[in-house]
Amino acid sequence: MPPKKGKEKEPPAPVKATGPPPKPRKPPPPPACFSNEDIAKFKEIFKAFDEDNIDKVPIEAIPTMLRKLGFNPKGEEIKQLFVMFLEDDLVDTVEFFEWLFMVEAKMNWGDDFEAAILKAFAAIGHDDEETGFVDFEVLREELMTWGEPLSEIEFMDWIKLAMKDKTYNPEDAGPEDVGGDGYEESPGREGGTRKERCRT
User: Fold this and answer.
1) For 92, which DSSP code?
2) What is the pLDDT of residue 124?
């Protein structure tokens, strides 16, 4: 009678190699066109919505955050931003560097509101040839005559804000244009005029 065979031992399970934990992902540098002042402003808005102080904001806060910067983002634009800058559609938070790139993209896309302002500016200043420039005296007359007219002081204060370099002097103003670069240098949102910001 052959001897009973003992129960064969199962081979030991492979031991999982252990090692140091993966290094945290290093965020990319901010867009080069943002100044330190711009980044500080964007950071302030970001921190205001980072209620848990985890350096992340809920994805639902992004439209409101963009409106805080003066944008009027459409639903489709928001979806496109998420596709462009978030890892996948399961992510429910946004990191600061992702927020910066979303702001950059929205600036480059422009805004219907800004386009409407530029169109109105062209109409008021009678830029019939669409040159991007308006006659200074014509603009002043229109704004100080029609609708709810501006006073001389109000107009001077407004034109200083509308100019890119903020150096308006009524004694030096030329009659040919406003702001040197014309009305396309309209006042921007947080961070300067539109032409000073990031462009693709």
Assistant:
1) -
2) 81
Taking the alpha carbons of 81, 83, 84, 88 in that order, is the dihedral positive or negative? positive
Q: Across the 200 residues of the chain, what is the mean pLDDT of every consecutive 10-residue run?
A: 58 58 73 93 96 95 94 91 90 95 91 71 81 80 83 83 54 46 44 41
Q: Pull the structure tokens for residue 64.
A: 């409101």
Tokens of 44: 């302030």
* Under 8 Å between Cβ of 177 and 183: no
* DSSP at 106: H
- Domains of the chain as residue ranges with CATH: 36-109 (1.10.238.10), 112-186 (1.10.238)
Q: Which two tokens stand for residue 47?
A: 């921190």
Q: Are 81 and 41 in contact (CB under 8 A)?
A: no
Beta bridge pairs of residue 56: 95
Indicate the helix (H) or strand (E) that contains 122: helix 112-124
Q: Could you tell me what percentage of the chain is helix, strand and coil, using 3-state DSSP and rounding each to the nearest 5? A: 45, 5, 55
Looking up tokens 């396309």 gives 184
Report yes or no: 104 and 31 within 8 Å, Cβ to Cβ. yes
Identify residue 93 by its one-letter amino acid code.
T
Predicted pLDDT of residue 40: 95
Is 137 within 8 Å of 175 (Cβ atoms)?
yes
Whole-number pLDDT of residue 104: 95
* Rounded Cα–Cα distance for residues 94 and 102 (Å): 10
Coil, strand, or helix at residue 49?
Answer: helix
